[in-house]
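We give the chain.
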Amino acid sequence: MDGIIYTIIIGAVCGYIADVLMSDNGYGLLVSIIIGIAGSFVGSWAFGELGIKVGSGVVSDIIRGASGAILILFILGLFKRGTRRRS
């Protein structure tokens, strides 16, 4: 249970970081925090699959989570841009 709560807290921080770095994403802060929580799971999985080691501790968790959140926001941005109507 502590692992899930820790991941949610780190994910919220990562969502905020991703929202600041990708300021024109069109999502609000709350949605970016939710995406950050999902990004924590995605980033941890992706870094593990790719064999990338960034160390241990809170800072490395934030790096993995923020990377996952930015990846999710980038992919969502591609879909969002693809569905816009052109004038």
Q: What stands out?
A: The radius of gyration is 14 Å.
